Amino acid sequence: MSFVELMIIILALGSIIGAIMVLKKSAKKFDLSEEQLAKIKKRNEDLDREDRES
Questions:
Q1: DSSP per residue, 1-54
Q2: pTM of the predicted model as reported, rounded to 2 decimal places
């Protein structure tokens, strides 16, 4: 392997790892209120019930 090929591989891997690290760092958790959580749970239960019926 030549020096140029090795540098291209290192740069590609560095770009991939860097992008993954940026995504991980910028990911945010949802801060949901109790009311929003209750709505989500109710909607999920309704959808599960519809799936069981069909």
A1: --HHHHHHHHHHHHHHHHHHHHHHHH-------HHHHHHHHHHHHHHHHHHHH-
A2: 0.51
